[in-house]
Design goal:
Length: 520
């Protein structure tokens, strides 16, 4: 940027500047732009989407993160990705997945979670016939939570006017949700289920998306996930997960918004405890009425040993220091993006799998293995004659730091081979069928996604009461907001879409640009 451009930028005042183009940030930005706000998104990398993006290699289109996508149904209010795109006149063609996840668990316990709720309950009951009543009661409560969520527009509960209107529209649903806010899944499961093996299954059901066992997973989140997979279903966006971010960017730009890539924000500018702008890495300052951080809470406010943050220490609110004591960064992942010969994947293979050898390894380093084969749904993602296998396992940054370049390269290869060996049981001779291999580590996720320790998101440091301690979008600094998986309601693409809706609505109330009526 030359001096003239820098001067013009300094004089310009945006309605909102969003730091980061993860899906939470893009939903916030596009929602605000659709309401008439002048919005700028600043992205440090070259493509949008963050961990909800895609990248291309040698004819393959790889999803950065998982490809098990909620929020693309057609009915109700919980289909937030569908709604977010429709609000900006965009649409993703999707491919329904008949099975959410196939579990391969200790003691030969295998079960596939079918799109059909009746079929799933029948399969689970056949494995635990003595728990038939408990299974029905537990999952029925999940449906009650989901039905409460699905009966009302999901916007910011920080806006008193919205709360009044939605309570008038659906009073029983509001009261029903309030009941479950302080409750974790484990509390409910143990009330109805006694079999230790079945309770472990509920643990892994939670862990597959929250990376926490049932005792530390909020009931509100479980109600959404355990029911929406049967209601709206798992639907894969044709062309890869990155298409969602691309469509959100197109919608943002069609509404007059702007996104700038390779624009790394160094600092949020604070004046009299009010956010007034940002400073980017080239020294330019950009001013706005509202600043929104789509970075993790640690990258934004520090804590947990973070060496850098977007705010100076003197500006960090006390509430954020309390939060950093309550929550820890979850592990990152060791991941393999593989191209394999088409013939090694049987045609009746499910798209998504979870593998666990021993129950006591569930929260251990590289204990659980996730497998995604998106080309079973969308063959266009790979060159002819190939499939994609994306396999990943939780891995902490502490295992990857302090290594010399040689040690780091060796560990990558050793750990990748161990992960490949786990796949041999399901896809014999996979090593000889590889046509592409790319290894990602926590250090890769930190570098390319800009996430503290490459973390998947926050997890409770101790057992907390459901979702109540999670922060919302507002912060202790005026005109400064957060969005994404460090905010209510947490991790997952549909969850961060909820966070984006809520953030845009909260800011829209401040700017006076929200519609009076609730969404239909």
């Amino acid at each position: 940027m030359d001096s003239k451009e820098s001067t013009e930028e300094t004089k310009m005042i945006w309605d909102a500047v969003v730091i980061g183009s993860g899906l939470g940030g893009l939903v916030t930005a596009s929602q605000l732009a659709a309401k008439g706000a002048k919005v700028l998104v600043l992205e440090r990398y070259m493509i949008p989407g963050g961990s909800g993006g895609s990248f291309k290699r040698n004819g393959f289109t790889f999803d950065v993160g998982a490809s098990m996508i909620f929020g693309f149904g057609e009915k109700g209010y919980t289909n937030l990705l569908t709604r977010a795109l429709a609000d900006i006149n965009q649409h993703c063609e999707t491919i329904p997945d008949p099975v959410q996840l196939a579990y391969h668990l200790p003691n030969g316990f295998e079960i596939a979670v079918s799109r059909s709720y009746k079929e799933f309950i029948s399969k689970l009951t056949s494995k635990f016939p003595h728990e038939a009543l408990g299974i029905k009661r537990f999952y029925d409560i999940c449906w009650k939570v989901f039905n409460c969520l699905d009966s009302m527009p999901l916007l910011s509960i920080e806006d008193p006017a919205y709360l009044a209107k939605v309570f008038f529209k659906a009073p029983l649903s509001c009261l029903g949700l309030a009941r479950w806010l302080p409750v974790n899944v484990g509390d409910v499961a143990r009330k109805y289920i006694k079999d230790p093996e079945l309770l472990r299954f509920i643990d892994i059901e939670c862990f597959c998306w929250s990376v926490m066992p049932a005792d530390r997973t909020p009931m509100i989140n479980a109600g959404m996930v355990f029911s929406d997979r049967h209601a709206g279903g798992i639907n894969y966006p044709k062309g890869g997960v990155g298409v969602i971010a691309q469509k959100l960017v197109q919608g943002l730009e069609s509404c007059g918004g702007e996104i700038r890539y390779k624009s790394r924000v160094k600092k949020v500018l604070i004046e009299n405890n009010r956010a007034i702008g940002v400073e980017v890495s080239n020294g330019a300052k950009i001013f706005a009425k509202v600043i929104i951080s789509n970075a993790t809470r640690w990258d934004t406010f520090g804590g947990a040993g973070a060496k850098e943050s977007l705010l100076d220490e003197k500006h960090i609110p006390k509430s954020e220091k309390i939060w950093s004591n309550r929550y820890l960064p979850s592990p990152s992942f060791l991941s393999l993006h593989l191209g394999v010969k088409h013939e090694i994947i049987p045609s009746d293979t499910h798209c998504h799998h979870l593998i666990l050898g021993e129950w006591n390894e569930m929260e251990a380093e590289q204990g659980v293995t996730f497998v995604s084969i998106p080309t079973l749904l969308d063959p266009s993602l790979a060159p002819k004659g190939n499939h994609i296998i994306h396999t990943f396992t939780p891995s902490s940054m502490s295992k990857w730091e302090g290594l010399s370049p040689t040690q780091y390269a060796q560990k990558k290869q050793v750990d990748a081979e161990r992960l490949l060996n786990k796949l041999e049981k399901f896809f014999p001779n996979i090593n000889n069928a590889l046509t592409h291999k790319e290894i990602g580590t926590p250090r890769s996720h930190r570098r390319f996604l800009g996430r503290f320790q490459g973390s998947y998101g926050p997890i409770p440091a101790t057992r907390l009461p459901g979702l109540l301690p999670m922060p919302f979008n507002s912060t202790g600094i005026k005109n400064f907001f957060c969005v994404g998986d460090s905010c209510f309601p947490g991790q997952g693409l549909n969850a961060v879409a909820f966070s984006g809706y809520a953030c845009a609505h909260r800011i829209g109330a401040n700017l006076g640009i929200n519609k009076w009526e609730l969404p239909t």
